[in-house]
Amino acid sequence: MNEKLLMETVSLAGKIMLASGSEVYRVEETMKYMLLKSNYPVAEALVLATGLFVTLDDPNRETITITRRVPARSTNVNRICEVNEISRDFCSNQITVEEAYDKLLKIEKESIYSKRWKFLGIVGVSAFFAPIFGGTTMDVIGAGLVGVILALADCLVKKIKLNDFFTNAFCSFVVAVAATVIKKFFLPECSSDVMIISAIMSLVPGVAFTTSIRDTLNGDYSSGSARMLEAIVVALAVAAGVGLGLVSWDAFWRWIA
Amino acid sequence: MINQVVSSILAVYFFTMLLEIPKRYAIYASLVGGVNWWVYLVALEGLESSMMAAFFASLAVAILSQIFARVQKTPVTVFLVAGILPTVPGAAIYRCVYYFIHNDSAQCTYYLLQTIQIAGAIAMAIFITDSLFRMLQHYQNRKASIG
Known about the structure:
The structure holds two protein chains of two kinds.
Chain A: H1 3-19, H2 24-35, E1 42-48, E2 51-57, E3 64-69, H3 77-91, H4 97-107, H5 115-128, H6 137-160, H7 164-186, H8 192-199, H9 206-217, H10 221-256
Helix pairs in contact in A: 1-2, 1-4, 2-3, 3-4, 5-6, 5-8, 6-7, 6-8, 7-8, 7-10, 9-10
Chain B: H1 2-18, H2 23-47, H3 50-72, H4 77-83, H5 90-101, H6 105-146
Helix pairs in contact in B: 1-2, 2-3, 2-4, 3-4, 3-6, 5-6
């Protein structure tokens, strides 16, 4: 077996899973299973929230180590499924290491929902979370409208490639202003609080926070705390954006009136 | 209540597009989300504690996800990530930081505690179910290898 390619394949599989928001123990488990295919006596995979290390060790041969940095994480369940399938096929000898590597390269950039579906997703999430926060039918309509504006802002931000913090802050700024304007001029019976909260549901890091606690319970303390900090930073960006939006609209309105 | 459950199913369905959950699993994932919110509402009425309600709701989600994952032969994450969305403390996290910025320490602490309680309850429920199913599988494997 080509050990070097096996290492490349294993680290790529781990990198994709980690960047797609999988739990750390699941990434390590998948990598370890794939490493069993080598004939080295010691095979280790260490995964942290921001990167991973793989080592194949043998006293009689040269040690192979690969390090991969994973700078950005977002949830992409499809990629986790695909990697899982490839690793299962590989471990049961149905595909060779070359085929596995090619397949992994292909799914690394794959996206199954187009931009239009994503747009619809943001609008739908925004609209239908409103009743969960105690909103009425009017709130659903209002939150849907805010969702449309949020989706537009999201498209704009992706074009100019802002960093994560400012993407979230800008989007929530837009949400806060849009919700206030809609309440003031179009749908006065809506609650702007409900509209804002249901619109930011697609930005807010609830799942990341829960995953961080799950990592911690599994004994992956460094990844758990790193993910928790990440979630707090995202929440900070969102709250700062909303806060700034509300304050600046207030100032603007007073300046006009 | 029925309105809320239906809207949570729809909300999770739209969320599957953002989480890139494969289309063939999207309906199941949204159903899990609906079950989550339904159990949450029922438990909240009976227990009057949002932490315990979140715990039982996530327990239902975790068990259902494990079953769906075994039937569909796919990772549990597919149904789990989408299913816990309605109870996940997204709004509480936001409110906590919002009041932190506004220097309202009483509200900030209240929502901070709520965030940690609910996220902890969800994580605990998933962790317990995960360990239980692992044990079950281990036992089955051992029985198969002996018999």
